[in-house]
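Record 1 of the preview.
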Amino acid sequence: MVNSALAESFSCGPAPERLSGSAPAAEEPVLDLVHLSRQTFGDHALETELLTLFDRQAEQFAARLAAPCGAGESGWRADLAHTLKGSARAVGAFGLGAAAEAYESSLRSGDPCADALQERLAAAIGTVRAEIAALFEKA
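->
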């Protein structure tokens, strides 16, 4: 079951160096499952539901962002990135949230397509979706 796979992935909390701010974390996880657990008050069924919904949303957004960028599309693309940024951070996909924020900022500042950032965002979506799939396979 997904719940046991998620539960096995949790740790007691952030590393001490992250709490003190004295040293950066060695490597940020693709999904911060401790954060997700805090968001859901430890409800594993809710964690599973949120990850499932997020995975579907990310799949849909990736398909929309993969379409060639035309004139006048920066507004809806920035809005899409903004939505993805918030939902990614809510489930603990902070790297994806950062990629979405960079893409959104670039579009809002007038870069018509921000191709490199769009590619980075697409790659981050793929990485998070693969991590979610791996969690569900463990179940």
